[in-house]
């Protein structure tokens, strides 16, 4: 019985990595679709979001089943509960990648917000988000605490770029159209939130490995209704 339980726990981990790989692929493709007004890639991201949702459902069903049948305690309980939280976070990251792809598709054959500094800032944000996606996959594979710390500290890059995007909107010299203003605000928000969810993954992995509740308050705040408004 214990061996079966161990195998089921390992499968949870494998499924989380698979889900993260789908998410990372989605943000990579969404970034390219945004940069090159690639309709095909944008639609691939949108269509593939269903696969991420299906993996989340499978993980949640496995975790709930383990809780009901095995009644895990201590470290095992932490693993199962963390898997439930991580699946929800990865699903939101996939949704945000889809939102970026939605904007890229909606502006086709033009490039969204393709004008001056606003375009450069959004591309920098998208590339940084893509980096976060790759890091999250590696983190789930390795549980590397140094990588978790790096993801959290690097989130300042996206926050800073997000602030710059607002300054561009307020800059009269930029001369953005109403649609471009909407695109800058929406894309900036989507990409900034993507980074925030990457931080959430990093904190949960840190908790999983160490059992340290130092970040517990921060993790609760991340899941509050106000912070979940845009996935």
TrEMBL record:
Q: Which of UniProt's keywords are assigned here?
A: Cytoplasm, Phosphate transport, Transport
Q: Where in the cell is it found?
A: Cytoplasm
**Principal localisation:** cytoplasm
The record ties this protein, via InterPro entries, to:
PhoU, PhoU-like_sf, PhoU_dom
Annotated transmembrane regions:
none
Domain of life assignment? Bacteria
PhoU domain location is 17-102, 123-205
Family the UniProt entry places it in? Belongs to the PhoU family.
Listed under subunit, the entry gives:
Homodimer.
**Known function:** Plays a role in the regulation of phosphate uptake.
**Name of the molecule in the record:** Phosphate-specific transport system accessory protein PhoU
Q: Tell me the classification of the organism that encodes this protein.
A: Bacteria, Bacillati, Actinomycetota, Actinomycetes, Micrococcales
């Amino acid at each position: 019985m214990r061996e079966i339980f161990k195998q089921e726990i390992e499968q949870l981990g494998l499924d989380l990595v698979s889900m993260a790989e789908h998410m990372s692929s989605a943000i990579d493709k969404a970034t390219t679709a945004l940069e090159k007004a690639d309709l095909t890639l944008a639609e691939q991201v949108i269509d593939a979001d269903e696969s991420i949702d299906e993996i989340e459902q499978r993980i949640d069903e496995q975790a709930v089943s383990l809780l009901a049948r095995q009644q895990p305690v201590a470290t095992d309980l932490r693993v199962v509960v963390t898997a439930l939280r991580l699946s929800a976070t990865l699903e939101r990251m996939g949704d945000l990648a889809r939102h970026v792809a939605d904007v890229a598709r909606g502006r086709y054959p033009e490039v969204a917000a393709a004008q001056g500094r606003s375009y450069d800032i959004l591309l920098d944000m998208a590339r940084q988000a893509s980096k976060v996606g790759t890091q999250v996959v590696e983190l789930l594979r390795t549980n590397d605490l140094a990588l978790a710390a790096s993801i959290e500290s690097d989130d300042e890059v996206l926050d800073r770029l997000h602030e710059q995007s607002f300054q561009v909107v307020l800059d009269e010299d930029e001369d953005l159209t109403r649609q471009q203003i909407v695109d800058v605000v929406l894309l900036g928000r989507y990409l900034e939130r993507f980074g925030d969810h990457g931080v959430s993954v990093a904190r949960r992995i840190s908790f999983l490995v160490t059992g340290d509740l130092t970040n517990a308050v921060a993790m609760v705040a991340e899941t509050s209704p106000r912070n979940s408004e845009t996935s």
